[in-house]
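Moderator note: this is an archived Q&A kept for reference. The question asked for a predicted structure of one protein chain; the sequence and the answer are reproduced below.
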Amino acid sequence: MLYLKLAGRNIRQSISNFLPFALSSVVMFIMNLMVATILLSPSLKKLQGWGNFAMLLILGLIVLTLFAVIFMIYSYRFLLKRRTKEFGLYHILGLKKRQIARIAALELLMMLLATVIAGTILGIILAKFLYLIFIHLLGENYFDLQWSPIAVGIVTATFACIYLLLMILGSFSIHRQSSLELLNNASKGEKEPRSRGFLAVLGIVSLAIGYYLAVTVASPFDALTKFFIAVLFVIFGTLLFYMSFTIWLLKRQKKNKNYYYQPKHFITVSGMLYRMKQNAVGLANISILVTMTFVTLATTVGLYSSINGFLNDYFVRNTIITVNTTEQRSSAFIDQVAKESGIPMKHKVVYELSNSLTGAMKNGNFENRQNLSSLTTVNFMTAETYKKLTGNTVHLNSNQAIAYPAVGSFTESSIRFGDQTFNIKNKINGIRNFPSIRLTTANWLILIVNSRAQIQPVLDAATKAAGNILPLGFETTISADAASKDAAKLNKALSDYRVDGNKIQRLDTTKEQALRGTAPSLLSYDDIHRQFLAFAGGFLFIGLVLGFTFILGTALIIYYKQISEGEQDRRSFKILQEVGLSGDEVRQTIRSQVLLVFFLPIVVAVVHFGFAFIMIQKLISLFGTTRFGLLLLTSVGTIAVVAIIYYFIYRQTSRAYYRIVER
């Protein structure tokens, strides 16, 4: 009972020390509970495509849990350092270390209880608000969120494990230090680090490798394979940049007597150099967190904002039907089914296109193999179809073709498919009444040739190489305007048919049939828009949650840095004032140091994001968007918003630093 009273008294009397830890604990509990409540609520299953949302929410919950572990440990270590003198006094007054550890454990139990109670109440309330945002992003209208007791239990159990880990860390920290160390640990500074030229060069080289991987990606799939490798190099390089390169730079400034022996430079350089080992890790963490915020928000906002533009580029009309047979037969078949179903088809556009060839393009040679760095999809169109779509007549020899790189780029003067070579007569930038983008492809090349017979050997060779049962040939695409209900009705009617070459057979529902061929494919703008909005909305929702968490973590690290550095700097500045430094000079020096420490990480983060932008653009194109201007605009907007929030954090936390130093 005595230990319980001591623990309660410690929290009440040291509330200024416990409050940052308590706030970070409650906020992380709320964030985890809100996501878990939406994930485990029965309401989620009433949404269209809820399985995809559930996967995104699970991924977000895993990241949030890992983040909670990291920042709870970071917060508690800061709290322990501020209380080591108190623990040392307890030990001198007769308490054993295991008794001190017991008091610290009881304090954590009280904090856990307060976190669970406050976090559960606020989490359930805020989960409804977060769910409204979630529903709005998905374009749904079901707003009734049912809270899940299982979610509260899971998050509570998770935080109980985190607090158990904190108890172990606290007990270990108390037992491994002597009474004198406990008394002096809170005011103990860092030794001046040594300048390590090799590590400084290694950090710059690591950053250069990460940047090189980011700017030299050739395709979205290439970016997918190189992304995490580049991230690891940049993280490693950032740590070494702060731990070694900045120290080397500060020592260079120290050797420059004209620069160093000025009051503001002398104090700033000496102070930062003396504690740079401690600062380096914190500054690197801030840079990495801000970069993660930029990447997460810019990617998700860019993806969400580009949906309409992408679909407008893909859908020539609001309904697209693909039939794997000739144009004449396909058009007559679709007209017949639509007439039987009583469905009007307006503004029809009909064209033939070959089945897709997917492979690798290298130096004008197309190979039927999968190479992620140069993955390309090729389709053939005849000159007759091109004239029908555009009204332009083209004259091509048997070995000539016109290239239209709808997605990606094509700069070759010829292209070779096995034994057959096509010389590129011309390159065009678009085809009227034809999509300018394609679903699920990275590079899409349309080759306009003289006739179907001319490229059938190429298709046959591709069929043989891929081991396909159905031979590759030409398919017909019919784009038309139809009401959403009519498109759904037509899609159901077409599902009863199978197309096998020149044969179109209808499934007999009165008996079992095993028909060969493929069913006609129908895509409706409204259906695809809902699916894309659901996916991108869920992606944006997780991005916003994680972005807020990253900003919270950044603010937390900055606050702890300001408090700890303020306490270390207070005595130094007091001595300097006693030896003649004026109050204005102190404030100017403080401002110079704070500005440097605060804004160096965000500058580094902007540089990281600038090099990562090309890779991000490639990755987003996997989901359909290739609009460079829109992504650039959303990225600049994201950086601006985060920078404003970062500046607000700077203003608030720097006040605490000034109060401590000028006290």
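Archived answer notes: The chain is about 65% helix and 10% strand.
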